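Example 4.3 (complexes with small molecules)
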Amino acid sequence: MGRLDGKAAVITGGSQGIGRATVELFIAEGAKVVVADLLASEGEALCDRLGPDCVFCKTDVTVEDQVRNLIEVAVKRFGRIDCLFNNAGILGQTGGIESMEVDRFDRVMASHGRSVMLGMKHVAPYMKQQGFGSIINTGSISGIQAVSAYMDYSAAKAAVIHLTKCVAMELGEFGIRVNSVSPGQIATGMGKTGPDALEKAAVLRELNKTRQPIPRSGMPEDVAFAALYLASDESSFVNGHDLVVDGGLIGGSSWTERQRMSASVHGALQRQA
Ligand SMILES: NC(=O)c1ccc[n+]([C@@H]2O[C@H](COP(=O)([O-])OP(=O)(O)OC[C@H]3O[C@@H](n4cnc5c(N)ncnc54)[C@H](O)[C@@H]3O)[C@@H](O)[C@H]2O)c1
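Answer. The structure with nicotinamide-adenine-dinucleotide bound is encoded below.
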């Protein structure tokens, strides 16, 4: 028996990375899935491989008409919509506040904040009618801790996490749960496609090994399992929560780092004495 037997889900940004891993896991757990993405050939190939319970709907999640259509496609195809995973997103711009490009800033805000708002806006009427549903939005640890290197992205993710909590307070009364998942350093090809994406993911997989207390890189499947829990009935009393999946990265300094710091302070004091 699958943990999502009989459920229907929409997963945005499902053609690659975290979204694709979640599509594969949801299908393996018995769900029917509509995959939404701008990358049509990758999304269609994924659905061909996974069979008739997986359908692709080309969607730009920043455009209201396309998001409305996506939700309608899911309801028409599967007759219900148990879960919406608002996961699509793009990278922020590097550089400080003085070099911020306004168009790019708006695009980053729209890719994360507006898309999540639109998904929730258009799925809410269907979920209210059903009296149940689970909405999962992709935040980030950058939405919790300020990341000055990608300040537009960091601010957009903070908005996603906060909007999630606001909407959870509204829709909980209708039996709809709204939560976010905040990944840490995950080895994906984010911002790249095809072979370049594979190459970036492989590089990150190595680089990320020592960034957090858990001595391996975060993988797309780690986030997919968090989404699986939030989509399933196992989390039926979890609402307005941000589930951090970062191997302990923002929990504090690691044991080894702390010991090194204590040893250097101790050494400096001894030298002074
Ligand atoms: N990889 C990480 O370390 C990490 C960390 C924290 C949060 N996240 C978040 O996880 C989510 C998935 O990221 P990923 O690492 O899998 O990246 P990815 O680039 O591999 O996947 C993102 C997907 O979203 C799609 N997409 C982008 N803009 C879109 C739009 N306007 N409409 C429809 N689809 C669109 C892309 O085509 C792509 O398939 C993003 O929201 C990202 O911000 C990633």
